[in-house]
Q: What sequence folds into this?
């Protein structure tokens, strides 16, 4: 199984409506997809949003990410987001948010120090 973890930083509060529009549609699409489980959380200031999804394989992930609402949201992501981080790990179930955020911080640190 594959867990996809994403952090989206909203560039300004004025962009929240555009983000909510796509996010709601993507959640509806997830419910119709081959996604096994999903969960969402956000920071207290509503600027950082995290999603985590569980998939059987890479093909199922790519089929979802490269089509429909998600594809359109990615094309327009610069409208509402200043930064998007994403990674995938192998695990049999979704992990805790604490663990997921630590993984994203570690990946960001590695990218920053290797530049």
A:
């Amino acid at each position: 199984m594959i867990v996809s973890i994403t952090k989206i930083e909203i560039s300004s509060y004025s962009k929240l409506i555009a983000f909510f529009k796509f996010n709601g549609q993507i959640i509806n699409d997830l419910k119709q997809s081959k996604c096994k489980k999903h969960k969402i959380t956000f920071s207290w200031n509503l600027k950082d949003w995290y999603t985590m999804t569980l998939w059987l394989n890479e093909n199922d992930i790519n089929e979802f990410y490269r089509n429909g609402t998600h594809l359109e949201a990615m094309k327009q992501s610069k409208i509402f987001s200043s930064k998007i981080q994403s990674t995938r790990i192998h695990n049999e179930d979704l992990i805790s948010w604490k663990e997921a955020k630590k993984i994203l911080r570690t990946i960001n640190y590695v990218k920053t120090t290797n530049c």
User: Anything to note?
Assistant: The longest strand covers residues 81-90. DSSP finds five helices and four strands in the chain. The first helix runs from residue 16 to 32. The two ends are 31 Å apart (CA to CA).
